[in-house]
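Let's practice the habit of predicting before peeking. Look at the sequence and jot down your guess about where helices and strands might fall. Then scroll down.
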Amino acid sequence: MRYRLDLGYLGTNYHGWQRQPNAHTVQAEVENALCTLLRCPVDLVGAGRTDTGVHALGYAAHFDYNGAIDSPAKFCHALNGILPGSIAIHSLTEVDGDFHARFSATSRQYIYLISREKNPFLAPLAYQYTAALDFAKLEASACLLEETSDFASFCKAGSDQGTTICRVTTARWTQEGGVWKFSITADRFLRNMVRALVGSMLQVSCGHWSLARFKQAIDAQDRSLAGPSAEPQGLFLASIGYPHPYPSTTPYPALPTGIQP
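Done guessing? Here is the structure:
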């Protein structure tokens, strides 16, 4: 039988989602907890990678188990009791065998948070950028992304992505008090893409680049001409969309104001 896990995690102390030798990862933590409860090895398949220090609000994974889990709510409660406080299981549901946490996904939403003042309580969750910025320029930069199809300039060098074409459906900046938030939804994302986009838009906002220069960086399809990647702690994988009858993931409900997507 195949089961889907929905979860969220604080990525500060992890080397990303994907299991790696000699590295502390979210996938390894959850697999170990599942193995303890189910008393057998578990191969957990996640919706995709997240980089070191990056967080997830609404993440999905699946695993196969030759048995029935009679009470998903009790199972989740027990699983949360084993896992560290930085990982929270939202739900467990039985799904058809053709469901795939990664390949069945039709969209993903990321958010990036910038704290405009020094705030020790937001430090693990937002990039603390207190230099002068122009919010209107950020908004204008984001508008260009919905008109873009090839994001090669914002893909980590050396990545084997197959294609650099992504269909962005929404890209916008909002302000909520001292937190500025960038939200972007697309059918797929390239490795390091969101952080590279934010870093490039900050070049426009602080006056180092014109909007035309940002457009040139997009059109060049050359990573060396785009801006530096923004810091990882401000990035969240917010939600993942799936086709009917599977619901999209939903963010963990108890979040500080300004972090909800």
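How did you do? The beta strands are 2-9, 45-46, 55-64, 87-95, 107-115, 127-128, 168-176, 179-186, 235-241.
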